[in-house]
UniProtKB/TrEMBL annotation:
Name of this chain's protein: Uncharacterized protein
Organism: Candidatus Jidaibacter acanthamoebae
Amino acid sequence: MDKSYNQLLYFNFKLIGSKQKKLLIIKSFLEIFNK
C-alpha cells in the first residue's frame, strides 16, 4: 500500500471517534481485500 492510502486511512480513523466504527471499517476493508 502506498503512503497516500495509509494517510487516508489514518485521517478516517482520526475523524471517527468511536472504536466500534473503527473496527467495522477495518473489518470491511479486510473483507474487500480478501475477495
